[in-house]
Write a structure and sequence with these properties.
The structure holds 2 protein chains of 2 kinds. By secondary structure, chain A is of the alpha/beta class. Chain A contains 14 helices and 10 strands. In chain B, 80% of the residues lie in helices and 0% in strands. The chains are: A alpha/beta, B mainly alpha. The interface between A and B is large, with 43 and 46 residues.
C-alpha cells in the first residue's frame, strides 16, 4: 500500500512535467490589435535606436506600431533568436551572426538583396586615446612601437574585435612590400603590446576608461559616444582602416510593419538619426552635425584608403574560417602562441 | 513488473542500514516527488545535457580540451586561485564570524548587514567597483588590474560571505559553559580552541569552503573587467568557455565545463572526507 502511494506520487509528478513545460510554451503566442515589433539588436544600438523608433512612430506607417527591444552581445543575440527568442527584426554587429539565422531558417536567404546589401549602419575601426593624444598616435605603425599599451577585445570571443584585428591585418598587407607574412608579423607585434583582451567591446571600453592602456582599438561610433558623454578621451581616424558594416534583417515570420520600419531606418530621416549617434550613413546625401565627433560639422571625413571585408578579405565566411577558426585560424594561432606579456 | 522492481529496490536500500525500512508514507512521498521534479528540472537535466553535449566529441573531446595549452593554463589558473582564495576564506571568514558573534563593538550590526553585499551585487558591478579601487586610477595606489592578483582579489570579494555565514550560526549556538568548564579544569586558550571550539565549527567551515570553492571556479562577471583576460596569464575557465561558445564550438565548451564539474565534485568530496576525519579526531 505504501509502495503504491509512492508509485502514484511519482506518476503524478511525471505527468506534471510535460504539463508545466507545455504551459510555458503556450503563453508566448498571444497577439493584440496594435502591431508590436520585437527588435533584437547588438548592445551599442540601445541608445541609437531610441530616437529612430520614436521618429518612426510619428510617421503614417509607424502610427500604430509599438516596440519591444532586446540588446546584448551580437553573438548572444543571434543565438538567442536561433534558440526561440521572438524577433521581427535583427540588427547585429556582423554578417555571420545573421547568416547563422539564415542557416536556422529564421531569415530568408535573400535578406541581403537590397540597395545596401543588407547593411543598416556603418562605422570605422579607429584608435581611442587619452585626451590630447600624449603619445602622438597617428597611424597603425605607431601601435606596434615598444611600450605602447593596447587594449582590444578578444577576437575569439568578440565580434567587434574581429573588425579591429582584420583592420590591422589589411594595413600591413597593403603597405609597400606587404604580404601575408608581414601582416602576420605585424598583428603578432600588435597583440604583444596588448595589456588586456577583454571579452567584449563594452568591457574593453570600461577597462580603458578606468585607466588601462594607452590606445583602445574601437568603433568610431563608440568613440564619438564616449566623447559626447564627456569622457577624457580623443579618437584618431587613421588614413587607412576597415569599414565596419552592421547588417539588419527581417525574420521570415515578421509582421508586415517590420519591413516599414526597416525602410524607415534606411531612409534619409532614419540614417540622419543614426549619424547623430555616431554611425556612418549607408546612403549618400545625409548632412548633419554630430556631437562628440572630432569636427562636429564634418563628422565623417572620407577615409583615404578604405578596406572592406568583401574587397580585401573575400567576405565574412571566408575571413572567419581563415582567421578565426578555433583550431586552424591564423589569429587563433597567434594568440595561443604568444604568451602575452611574457 | 514495476512493483517488483520497486520492492527489490527497497530491499537493496534497506540493506545499508539494518532494521530501518526506507519506505515513505503519503505525505513524505509527495514531498519527495515534488522535490525530485524541481531538482531534476533545475539541476539534473541541465547537467546531463552538458555532459551529453561534451560526450558528442567522445573521449577525444576531453583530451583535446586538456591538451590545448591555453585551456590547460586557464584550468590551472582558475583551480589554483580558487584554492588559494578558499584557504584565505577559511581563515578570514572564520575570524570575521568569530568577531561578529563573540565581540561587542560599535557598528557590529552594520558590519553584519554588509557582509552579504558581495552576494547581492551584480558581479559585473563588483568588477567595475574593484577596477575603480584597485585599477590604474586607484585612490589607494594599488593597481592589480590585468595581473594574476586581480583574479585572487575578485574571487576573494565574491566568495567572502560563504564561510562567515556558515560558521556564524554554529558559533552562536556554541554554549559558553563548556569553554568555561574547560578553562576551570586548567585548559589553555589554545587547547580550548583546538579541542572544543574547532571540532564544533569544522563541519560549518568545510561546508562554507566547498561553497566558496565551487563559486570561485565558476566566477565570470567580476573577473572580466579586472583581469584583462590575457591568454595564459589571467584568462579564467569561464572566459575560455565563453570564447568557445562565441566561436560556435559547443562541444569544447561543454567538455571544459564538464571537466570543471569533475574538479568541483572532487574538491567537495575531499572537503567532506577531511571534515569527517577532523571531527572524529576532535
Amino acid at each position: 500500500m505504501i509502495q503504491r502511494n509512492r508509485l502514484i506520487a511519482l506518476t503524478a509528478a511525471a505527468a506534471a512535467v510535460p504539463a508545466i513545460l507545455s504551459g510555458c510554451a503556450a503563453s508566448s503566442g498571444s497577439s493584440s490589435d496594435k502591431d508590436q515589433l520585437s527588435i533584437v539588436g547588438f548592445s551599442v544600438l540601445k541608445n541609437a535606436n531610441e530616437p529612430v523608433i520614436s521618429a518612426f512612430q510619428k510617421t503614417d506607417a509607424g502610427k500604430n506600431v509599438s516596440f519591444t527591444t532586446s540588446y546584448g552581445a551580437s553573438g548572444d543575440q543571434s543565438r538567442a533568436v536561433a534558440g526561440g527568442l521572438h524577433a521581427d527584426e535583427v540588427h547585429l554587429s556582423l554578417t555571420p551572426d545573421v547568416q547563422s539565422l539564415v542557416d536556422a531558417g529564421l531569415v530568408d536567404k535573400n535578406w541581403d538583396q537590397n540597395a545596401t546589401h543588407g547593411i543598416l549602419t556603418d562605422s570605422e575601426v579607429v584608435f581611442l586615446v587619452r585626451k590630447g593624444n600624449p603619445l602622438g598616435i597617428k597611424s597603425w605603425d605607431d601601435l606596434v612601437k615598444p611600450g605602447v599599451k593596447i587594449i582590444t577585445p578578444n577576437p575569439s570571443s568578440s565580434g567587434s574585435a574581429k573588425w579591429n584585428i582584420l583592420a590591422a591585418w589589411a594595413h600591413a598587407a597593403n603597405a609597400p612590400g606587404g604580404s601575408d607574412a608581414t601582416a602576420k608579423d605585424f598583428v603578432t607585434k600588435l597583440l604583444h603590446n596588448a595589456v588586456a583582451l577583454p571579452g567584449s567591446g563594452s568591457d574593453a571600453l570600461a577597462s580603458f576608461l578606468a585607466g588601462n592602456g594607452d590606445v583602445l582599438l574601437a568603433y568610431e561610433n563608440d568613440s564619438i559616444e564616449a566623447k559626447a558623454a564627456g569622457d577624457d578621451v580623443d579618437y584618431i581616424v587613421p588614413d587607412d582602416t576597415l569599414l565596419i558594416e552592421n547588417p539588419a534583417a527581417i525574420t521570415t515570420d515578421a509582421k508586415p510593419a517590420a519591413q516599414d520600419f526597416l525602410d524607415f531606418q534606411l531612409s534619409k530621416a532614419g540614417q540622419t538619426l543614426y549619424a547623430q549617434s555616431g554611425f556612418r550613413p549607408v546612403i549618400s546625401g545625409v548632412q548633419t552635425d554630430v556631437k562628440g565627433a572630432n569636427d562636429p560639422s564634418n563628422p565623417y571625413p572620407a577615409i583615404k584608403t578604405q578596406y572592406t571585408i568583401d574587397k580585401d578579405f573575400g567576405g565574412w565566411s571566408k575571413a572567419n574560417t581563415e582567421f578565426f577558426d578555433d583550431k586552424t585560424g591564423i589569429i587563433t594561432k597567434i594568440i595561443s602562441g604568444l604568451n602575452i606579456g611574457s | 513488473m514495476s512493483t517488483a522492481v520497486l520492492s527489490q529496490d527497497t530491499r537493496a536500500v534497506g540493506r545499508g542500514r539494518p532494521g530501518v525500512r526506507w519506505t515513505l508514507t503519503k505525505g513524505p512521498s509527495l514531498g519527495l516527488g515534488i522535490g525530485m521534479i524541481w531538482f531534476s528540472l533545475l539541476v539534473l537535466i541541465p547537467l546531463a545535457a552538458i555532459v551529453a553535449t561534451a560526450g558528442e566529441g567522445g573521449w577525444s573531446g576531453y583530451v583535446d580540451t586538456l591538451k590545448n595549452p591555453q585551456s590547460w593554463a586557464a584550468i590551472k589558473l582558475t583551480v589554483g586561485q580558487s584554492l588559494v582564495v578558499t584557504a584565505i576564506n577559511v581563515v578570514m571568514g572564520t575570524l570575521i564570524a568569530w568577531v561578529l558573534v563573540r565581540d561587542r563593538f560599535w557598528g557590529k550590526r552594520l558590519l553584519d548587514l554588509l557582509i552579504d553585499i558581495p552576494f547581492a551585487m551584480p558581479t559585473v558591478v563588483a568588477g567595475l567597483v574593484l577596477l575603480g579601487l584597485y585599477g590604474p586610477k586607484s585612490p589607494l595606489g594599488i593597481n592589480v588590474s590585468n595581473t594574476r592578483n586581480s583574479v585572487t582579489l575578485a574571487l576573494a570579494f565574491v566568495t567572502l560571505p560563504f564561510i562567515v555565514r556558515t560558521v556564524q550560526p554554529v558559533l552562536a549556538e556554541l554554549e559558553g559553559d563548556v569553554e568555561e568548564a574547560a578553562a576551570s579544569l586548567g585548559a589553555t586558550r589554545t587547547t580550548i580552541l583546538r579541542r572544543i571550539v574547532l571540532p564544533s565549527i569544522i563541519p560549518a567551515i568545510a561546508a562554507g569552503a566547498a561553497l566558496s570553492f565551487a563559486r570561485a571556479i565558476s566566477e565570470y562577471g567580476s573577473l572580466v573587467l579586472l583581469s584583462g583576460s590575457l591568454p595564459f596569464r589571467t584568462e579564467a575557465v569561464s572566459v575560455r568557455v565563453l570564447t568557445f561558445i562565441e566561436g560556435g564550438d559547443r562541444t569544447s565548451a561543454a567538455a571544459l565545463a564538464t571537466i570543471m564539474l569533475g574538479v568541483a565534485l572532487l574538491v567537495i568530496v575531499a572537503l567532506d572526507v577531511l571534515q569527517r576525519r577532523m571531527a572524529r579526531r576532535g
